[in-house]
Amino acid sequence: MSGTTNIDRRSARRQETVAEIVAAAWELAREEGLTGLALRDLGARVGMKAQSLYSYFSSKHEIYDAMFLEGYLAFAEMVETTSAEEAGNGDPDALLRRAARGFVAFCTSDPARYQLLFHRTVPGFEPSPESWAVALAAYERSRQSLSTAGIDDQASFDLWTALVTGLAGQQIANDPGGDRWEQLVDPAVDMFRVHLRETANAEGEKA
Predict the structure, then answer these.
(1) Residue ranges of the chain with per-residue pLDDT less than 50
(2) Could you tell me the residue range of the domain that residue 182 belongs to?
(3) Residue 94 and residue 43: Cα distance in Å, rounded?
(4) pTM here?
């Protein structure tokens, strides 16, 4: 019994250290940029030598993978919260506006996370199958939640993601800390809704 307890304690301490390293990596990424993450600086931030980090992560990309996973878990939580708040509302316009605002706010609140999740910012980095599965699940949940608002085909969802990601990217790149592009979220969603209606009407006429 005591041996098991010691193993559990070591495992808990290891997980705490891993979490501390990942938190420090996010701090550095926000200060220096994602590609500016240096293991020497990361080690110093958590009170260990750079080579000691390899006791917890096999490579810098594995650290990025842990960050990617953490970021998509946060994204999935945001999607679930937005979906729950709109459940039973029945207003597709309100649903899309809230979803777009939530996505843009999620991105602009943490530009480093936005870059890691939605851009190929880190050369050579590919998420692990486990982390990618979480990302795909969040993606599919987002699609499901928006299907009741008329986004029920791949082309429409692709256009939606381009729209909201573009607004977030413009805000981050050209007006950090401001709201120039965030103010365009509702008008952009309204334009998108017009496109959905016109597309549906055109398809109905063809049928």
Answers:
(1) 1
(2) 60-206
(3) 46
(4) 0.90
